[in-house]
Design brief:
TIM Barrel, 2 domains, 8-stranded mixed beta sheet, 12 helices, 18 strands
Length: 373
Amino acid sequence: MANIYRYILLGIFIFGLSIPAVAEDVTVIRADRVDTVTSGLIENGIIVIKDGRIAAIGSDVEIPEDADIVDVSDKTVFPGLVNPSSGIGLSSPGGGPFSRAHLSVVDELYPHQDVYKRVLRAGFTTFGLVPGSVGTGIAGQGAVIRPVGDKPGEMIVIKSGLLLINFQANDRTKKGIKSALDSVKDKMNSTDPKVQPLANALQGKIPTFITCGGPGNILHLLKLLEPYKQMKVVLSADSELYRVADKLAGKKIPVILPARIDFEPFTRNRINVPKMLVDAGVKIALRPKSDGIQAHEEFLRDVAELVKAGLDGEVAKKAITINPAQMLAVDYRIGSLAIGKDANLLVTSGDILDIDTKIHMVMIEGKVVHKAP
């Protein structure tokens, strides 16, 4: 019997190398231009995708023999759009305790909604999903999701991706936020679901998104945040924040803004707040004007209007891709076209900010999730 086992093992050793390996899923895209966002424009670009990630990119790239070829040699390839702060697909928020750090938006995910199909057609491949903004205080945990999947788990990129705080400059709100943050200073390794998100935010392990309206509120917020040096704060505020742009630039706090031309308060003077912030040295990300489908469908046109009104085009492209990815702390995976990143991309008829450009195809992790008829 021992001899039989010996021969079996010998046979495995001798013939094992002939056992076929599991084939890689390889796709090659050949395009007229590849706009990487962070590494320039590649003419006659080639992208090799293996198992959902970019394995090679350039104009002189070896094409694997077994690859599926996607020939879009008259088209442009651009990274998928990233909406960093959205409640799309979530139910309306309700009231509740001042600190709701243990609550997570992933508990509300329902994949079988038409809204997700429609935002895909508009070019959005990643969302920072945030809790509702009813009330003030610690609103709960946001997540980073992809708008595809048959089950909630298939949509999740990062389950506990951020902490949301809704701020107002009144004593109750300021004391409540400070008390919640200070209460976990000696519990940094806690696994308590009511403590862990706050501890992670304090240590900068996850970003802290803060909604805040008006320049006066922002000044109070900056004062409140002074003791919490490790927090990675991202601000979502109204158009008047341009009045304190220098303060935000000095603190290196990035800002999420709706893509729109605003009016100076109490006037009909049009102002380009994203440009004003960029000129002051603030990093920005742009989002649709609302969570409605129409706002997502009009988003690229709205961004193009900002560029027409003076916002630098390359800055605008970063504000809809790599900048929001950085704010969500997922830029190692998404936000630009580079080796090792998820193959989340758009195939378009031309430059993404050309008002006549059409989206012909959308890929998420190398899979076609939308193709125009």
